[in-house]
Amino acid sequence: MDLLTAKLDNETHTLHNVYRRDRFFDNRGHGDLRNVFGQRMTLVSEDFIVGYQVALEEELGEAANDIMYRCGLEWGRKDIAAFAERYQKEFGEKVHEANFGIMLETWWWPLQAAGWGSWRYDLSHRKEGLLYIDLFDSAVAKSVGNIGKVACHYYAGLFAAVFSYLAKHELSAIEIQCYSMGEEFCKFIVGSSKRINAAQFWVEEGARSDEIISRL
């Protein structure tokens, strides 16, 4: 986040969530690329992403999906912990006390700036214990193209970790619709492990996302 300031009513105010590429990325040379928070970054090509996916699948078979999900979990746990600390310093309140929508968008925006895509979340089913997320321009799915199956296991793990932290109890996540299946965007469900396991079964049976949602 670039802490730009503006003069408003003779007072100096911090502008939040303001990014430009030259301000978001800090190239320190010798392969050391950081974002504005000092976190290590890597710029990779689509060929790299495809090659990484293919190599995992060739070496691990179906277990590759679980490995990618677990990597996403670890990524999410570290990312939300760092964000929570940063958010409290910047806004003067804990993430669990913040306006939920503003806090979520503040968390996601650096990821969008880094190239992970944009999102839309649906909290209207919280009382049912479910959260739906639409992901647009997935870095993974856009790279691998139409392969006829879901590909964004990293994101599923990321969402599971982040919303587990925010809900203060363990949640799981699954992708039920993907750009790599010829869809316009990717869709995820976050919920209890029991319900996500049910969704996993229906995904493997070839059910469409609207069918899975109706069954849940």
Could you characterize the architecture of this molecule?
This protein is α+β, with helices and mostly antiparallel strands and 216 residues long. The chain has two domains: 1-43, no CATH class; 45-215, Muramoyl-pentapeptide Carboxypeptidase, domain 2 (2-Layer Sandwich), CATH 3.30.1380.20. 47% of the residues lie in helices and 19% in strands. The strands form three sheets. It has a four-stranded antiparallel sheet with strand order 6-7-9-8, with helices on both faces. β4 and β5 (40-41) form a beta hairpin. The protein is globular and about 45 Å long. The model is unreliable at 1-13 (pLDDT under 50).
Amino-to-carboxy terminus distance: 38 Å
Low confidence ranges: 1-13
- The sequence of SSEs as H and E is EEHEEEHHHEEHHEEHH
Instruction: Give the strand tally.
Output: 9
- Cα gyration radius (Å): 18 Å
Please identify the structural class as seen in this structure. alpha+beta
Arrangement of strands in the largest sheet: 6-7-9-8
Largest sheet data: 4 strands, antiparallel
Q: Look at the structure and give the mean pLDDT.
A: 88
Helix share, percent? 40-55%
Number of helices: 8
Which percent range describes the beta-strand content?
A: 15-25%
* CATH fold naming of the largest domain: Muramoyl-pentapeptide Carboxypeptidase, domain 2
So what's the CATH class of the largest domain? Alpha Beta
CATH superfamily of the largest domain, by name, is: Trafficking protein particle complex subunit 3
The outline comes out as: globular
Number of domains: 2
The CATH architecture of the largest domain is 2-Layer Sandwich
